Amino acid sequence: MMLSVNKQFSRHLRVIHACEKGATGVYWGHRWVAAWRYPDLVPALTAMHGHETEHYALFGQLLAVKNSPQVGLPILWCAGGILYGVVTALLGRRAIWKSTAIIEAIVEQELLAASEFFQAHDPQVSAAIEKILLDELQHKEQAQAQSLGWATIDAYIEPMAVAGAQLSKNLAEKL
């Protein structure tokens, strides 16, 4: 069944908004563990957390301006992100970076799809997405540079990241 333009509009904004809230939790969880295990990572993770917080606020404003409802209980996305962030960070420094690289690649694809939709329907939202995409690409590239090659832990991180992102998106579409 094809969704109306208004429903697609709202769906894209809700998914991005909810997932940005989840990202704030992921970086919070990563920072919490890094503070006692990898203190040298805290400044970079703090900057990334700040970007995600800004993105969440921006999409909240866009939802309000466009009269689109937010997802119910956004704290669920944050809590899920914190749990995921803590678990992956406990798996090690590489897991933090690999997790970030994978999640940011997923976010990149979601934002590109949304940007394509909004280019045709709302240039203001498309421009906001393009700006946010720059931050997300920077996060991905920084994380990829810190997790080059392959390690055994990668086999566990990717399925967790993909499953978490898909669950987050599915819930955002329904709640």
Instruction: Kindly provide the radius of gyration, computed on alpha-carbon positions and rounded to a whole number of angstroms.
Output: 16 Å
Mean pLDDT: 93
Helicity range of the residues? over 70%
Number of domains: 1
Number of strands: 0
GO molecular function, one term: metal ion binding
Keywords: Iron, Membrane, Metal-binding, Monooxygenase, Oxidoreductase, Transmembrane, Transmembrane helix, Ubiquinone biosynthesis
Transmembrane segments: 71-91
InterPro entries: Ferritin-like_SF, Ubq_synth_Coq7
Report on the architecture of this protein.
This protein has 175 residues and is an all-alpha fold. The chain has helices at residues 5-37, 42-65, 75-90, 93-121, 123-146, 154-174. The radius of gyration is 16 Å and the shape is elongated. The two termini are 19 Å apart. InterPro entries: Ferritin-like_SF (IPR009078), Ubq_synth_Coq7 (IPR011566). The chain crosses the membrane at residues 71-91. This is Demethoxyubiquinone hydroxylase family protein. Pathway: Cofactor biosynthesis; ubiquinone biosynthesis.
How are the SSEs placed, and which strands pair?
Blueprint: H1 5-37, H2 42-65, H3 75-90, H4 93-121, H5 123-146, H6 154-174
Helix pairs in contact: 1-2, 1-3, 1-4, 1-6, 2-5, 3-4, 3-6, 4-5, 4-6
Pfam family, one: COQ7
GO molecular function: 3-demethoxyubiquinol 3-hydroxylase activity; metal ion binding
Protein name: Demethoxyubiquinone hydroxylase family protein
